[in-house]
Amino acid sequence: MVEIKIDEDACVGCGSCVDDCPNNVYEMDEEKGKTKVVKEQDCMACLSCHEICPAQAMEHLDIHVAKRLYIDRKVNDVIRKIV
Predict the structure, then answer these.
(1) What's the CA gap between 61 and 5, in Å, rounded?
(2) 60: β partners
(3) Number of domains making up the chain
(4) Is Electron transport one of the keywords UniProt gives this record (predicted)?
(5) pLDDT above 80 for 7
(6) Do 42 and 70 touch, CB atoms closer than 8 A?
(7) Could you say which of 2, 4, 49, 79 has the lowest number of CB atoms within 10 Å?
């Protein structure tokens, strides 16, 4: 199972990871104004949260990524229009 660590000192509380995660692994901790892990067991290690985090406040342990499992289709559409 993937272990996720969030550096609360680095987290800016933007919620990008919460919005981006396809498996709803995260929620905002309203009291702290930071992201918290609520369903670590549902993480599929796609690392979309890690890629979108502006503060790089996340660390994923015990993963072996063979291929990217999640593709943001909106981003791909924008790239296709540019290219």
Answers:
(1) 8
(2) 4
(3) 1
(4) yes
(5) yes
(6) no
(7) 79
* Integer Rg of the chain from CA: 13
pLDDT: which is higher, 1 or 68: 1
Q: Residue 76 pLDDT more than 60?
A: yes
Tell me the C-alpha to C-alpha distance, in Å, between residue 50 and each of 21, 29, 72, 80: 10, 18, 13, 23
Position 62, amino acid: D
Q: Give the per-residue pLDDT at 69.
A: 54
All residues at 6 or more sequence positions from 48 whose CB lies less than 8 Å from its CB, including other chains: 20, 21, 22, 70, 72
> Residue 52 burial (CB < 10 Å; 0-12/13-18/19+)?
middle
pTM above 0.85, yes or no: no
Say if residue 82's pLDDT is above 80: no
| Residue 13 bridge partners (DSSP) | none
Query: What type of residue sits at position 6?
Result: I
Q: Give me the amino acid identity at 67.
A: K
